[in-house]
User: Fold these one by one.
Assistant:
Number 1:
Amino acid sequence: MSVISTIAQPLRTLWFAQGQRTQGKLHVRDAIDIKRTMSLVWLCLMPAALFGMFNLGWQAQATLTEGAASPALWQLGVFNQLTGGLTPDTGVIGLFFYGASFFLPIYLTALLVNLAWELVFAKSRGEALHEGFFVTATLFTLVLPATMPLWLVAMGISFGVVVGKEIFGGLGCNFLNPALAGLAFLYFAYPEQTAGVGVWTAVDGHSGATALTALLSDKDAFDNTLWYQVFSDAAWWDAFLGFIPGAIGETSTLAILIGGGILLLTRLASWRIVAGVLLGTVATATLFNAIGSANNPLFQMPWTWHLVTGGFALGMMFMATDPVTASYTDKGKWAYGGLIGAMAVMIRVVNPGQPEGMMLAILFANLWAPLFDYFVAQSNIKRRLKRHAL
């Protein structure tokens, strides 16, 4: 198989069915394959990606309104030539293309580097190239700040694909989510570029904080606030809709839930994992609310705020439900999801130096997923042996 045909295969099969058909007597015939699965997941990520591009422009325009200087960044060369630059009067379409000026370079870098590594390993193993690199590159792009240097994008996706996936056998054999593995590498190796204060708004020389960081410094943010009272808070609705600084595709909980809901309806994502994450979050957040703290306002943070801040929603709907790295058994999925929800809240609250806990919680749960399945299988074996012994 030539290099050109190896690259062209997943692109061609996105639009055309395979020419080969199974023959003989079969027990199962199913139209769902890797191509359709990855294509649908990619499409479900588009609401978050499209809103993220608009929000990048909207946040930048807001800083200009506050008196910030007009940005002079290399990503905006084409945008400035076509529109004359970002102004307080730039419309919705202009704001969208402003954000696309940052999103597309990062996405194309992640996609091409990911494709290059997939091609290397596919050729070395004599295997076909699968469409999974589309989803991995998209997820990795959505969890990055818009100001991430492209060389760091290449390094992060390389680490995630090679170390988190390919060295364990490739698609279906990895035990860590490759997009999160790449993000974790950047998070600890280059913290200023990945989670620094000034990386979340795509303008030149502007400093701003994410919602989690801002809430951490506000000791009066949740005084006597109950979980159901946040629905009358305009700031909570801004966070739910996505009009807050943050990573490219993590800000709009609504857009993420739309795409994630389609995954649940098509059963490509497990509702048990999502429900387990929610239950773990509610239980742990409620426990911290009851304990309280005079110095750490996140102890009083209701679970409803955890849901709409940071990468919680994207992690719950798209990362935690990754069928390769999650538990396979039904009971194991409940335990796996519950562990993620509990760990995410615990990391956010107990370790305020790292207020974003969803990434670390999912990677930690990835390590426990096989153990959950093992314990469930052993329990079933013991129960059946006991039943037959009677």
Number 2:
Amino acid sequence: MGLFFKSRKHESAPELPEWLTTRDGFPFYIKAPMVLIGLYLFFHILDSLQEIIVPFAFAGLIAILLNPIYNRFQRWKFNKIVAIVLTIFIAILVVGGIMFFLSSQIVQFGDMVPQLEKKTMKLLDNLQEWLSTTFGISTEKQMSMLDEAINNSRTYVGKTVNTLFGIISFFVLIPLYIFLLLFYKPLILNFIFEVFDENNSDQVAEILQETKGAVQSYIVGLMIETTIIAALNSVALLILGVPYALLLGVIGAILNLIPYIGGIIAIALPVLISFITKDGYTTPLLIIGAYTVIQFLDNNIIVPRVVSSKVSVNALISILVVLLGGTLWGVSGMFLSIPFVAVLKIIFDRIDELKPWGKLLGDTMPEDAPVQVVNPREADENKQSLF
């Protein structure tokens, strides 16, 4: 009996097939669950700490954007603290000017609220009657569906407000974070270089430089694109005689910053206003046509030439990360998702083990993709031609 157990003890473990073993030698059925657990913990932490991470992430992006202005003040021999304060003051003036313009338009919009409410109720009654007669949906069921949609939207907006600490984050936390990030910039950069081996210092410097350039070009490009789209939207709505064309045009341009989803909402707002303020369907159809043309110009001319980001993320990944960011952090997550993935792609492209992930995020199609997977029929034909 002892000999039996001894011989069993010294037996070598059966070898796994190559397709069940990852490159680092770990079995796939062990590594895959560990990766999933790690991803779950990662997103759980992001969700739990959103009130801290989201303002800090916005501050990081804005600090990178304002860094050239800060460096200009430094070259002019300004004191470090004075240079940072002046940089933040310029940013506050720009944001304040935009907020003042929007608020003045919203005040004018408030004068029309009673008329809008009256027309909206009439349209809702007509819609309820049409749904009942056409699809057989009872009024009670329609109201329950509407209440559920309103509750979901409140939760979504509430998550965004809670994420940003409300107004306090915008006017206190984010400027404070920007000040500290610019002030401690040498300390942070020195830490990043010291964490990695000296042999990789050139690679780290390249990643940092390219990340800074990509974020700056992306944000500046978005600002220029937003200005152009706001002008085009406003001109189109003015020509069509839609009330509050400037306000709707600017809001549509801001919503356009949210990839894919924002463009749909941007079209829905003026269409809804035209339904309420005008009779017939001519103006709403013309608005849809005008916005479709503007979206075509935006996607095919403005974005490729103006939003000259150094990192291109394919449409599939863009939609997925925007939806994931919205689920995780609300509207704030939608805005942060694309820059975050762009930075990840820069890092992945510089690390050999992560290069496949960088290619997956990009929009460059591989020229040497395996024919057996991409086009099995062509592979079979080539195989038969050999015989």
Number 3:
Amino acid sequence: MGRARLLVSDFVVSFMWVWSGVLIKQFSTYLGLNHQPLLEIVKATLSVMNMFFFAWLGKLTHGGAYNPLTILADAISGDFSNFLFCVGARIPTQVIGSITGVRFIINTLSGVGSGPRLNIDIHRGALTEGFLTFAIVTISLGLASKLHGSFYRKTWISSISKLTLHILGSDLTGGCMNPASVMGWAYARGDHITKEHILVYWLAPIEATLLAVWVFKLLVKPAIEEETSTKSKSD
């Protein structure tokens, strides 16, 4: 029953996530701001507020997530049964939730765009998404292991990091770092099985996630454990 509820949570959260991105763009357009810097500040503020809301929603649903990379990083460190559940059930559920959300958006709103697109060649696109994913997964692992304390402080650091990385990659690949969300839009366009989509938005981020977990375990985690052990002895 617990796993079934988690799958429902993943579907709902993924569905809501694609909607939230569109609503932020629509609301920013509705404001009719003429100054580009001011418009970007408003969009950035709304994006951070949105990530705080979904972080709270994840706690409320006891782990409901919208990004396959987040749960994959956790599953790699867990037991094999949880890994199979993540790959075989949770990630497909997130993809279905995103596809359903995009379908509802297209049928409900007009002129909302067609989602992120690759604006550079496939190899540089894969490197870009891979680098962005490696950075955010490493930051997330560090926050989970190193930083103890306030939920709001962790969420603030995570949100600002994601927003910064998204801005860095937005003109190149969309700065997505979320294969399920991209899949929803790609499926609606009919290019979800192209080489560009699979390599840039799936294989590169997944490989970067695996590399980030491995590097974190090899280099960062021993230092954290040693520091914790030293503090315990001094106390």
Number 4:
Amino acid sequence: MAGPRISVTMPCYNCGQTVAGALDSLLAQEGADFEVVAVDDGSTDDTASVLAEYARRDGRVRTFSIPHGGVIKAANAAIEASNGQYVARMDADDEALPGRLAAQAGLLDDHPEVGLVGCRVRFGGCRTACRGYAHYVDWTNTLLTHEAISLNRFVEFPVPNPSIMFRRDCLEEHGPYREGDFPEDYDLLLRWLEGGVRMLKADAELLVWNDPPDRLSRNHPRYDVDAFYRIKTEYLARWLARNNPHHPVVHILGSGRTTRKRADLLLKHGIEFAAYYDVDPKKIGHVVHGLPVRDRGEAPAPGQGFCLPYVASRGARGEIAAFLEERGCELGRDYIPAA
């Protein structure tokens, strides 16, 4: 007997208070042939019994427990045990909105060249208390095409991990989540993009992405800002080697201490800086680590050098992109944002 078309994989750890809601939202999905593979990662609360009850009541739910080893081991165990042609991710504290599975599977059906799809997500936290996270969600929701996802991959993680669905073939060719001192979901996305996997998003809110205070990405050092910059720098350096016609030389837009700290990670990968560029007259004319800080207006013209905007604030990032575009620079050809 053929297996289900879609496997939803869900790592679960001490989520007895939320996992029922997540499962209810999945089991209410219509128009999709699916299973849910929920792995209990050695929970110490009632997670295992909640999962067992759902598996008893609905044959679409399969569950088993493993010794506690963390979200990566649990996520990969769920993927390995799954049978579907398409594999979706879901966290045990999130909610699948109606039509999620059918819409994403439909995108993969309609676009055989695409290997991974996401969707727009609804922020499930407090926009006042968690303003930064909410802004990040709003930003990801603007990135719907492969080009937008690919060319913004070094700004932030462009496709929220709980929203993805992908072809099993991609998993077999490019590998599952990897263990390391880096965010495994961002690494997987960067690795698959580097490997040539094309990505799209459904232009609809299909997931509520909740933001509880104990969310792992808020508390584990694997997800802190420095870890994100370390892993993105490795992939950015390789991207520059393939796409920068002036390799290994780049021009850094921004000259503040944080910009320099993050950009300097590229030096270990053989990237060379021509200069820093800024709009602050107090910084222009200084020499930092042997490099001049120049007026931004002196940044290279299109075709004359490759620019890396390393200013992280949302307003400044957009303003720099507008400045470069007005000069005739093209995203991906003459510059790519890296913060």
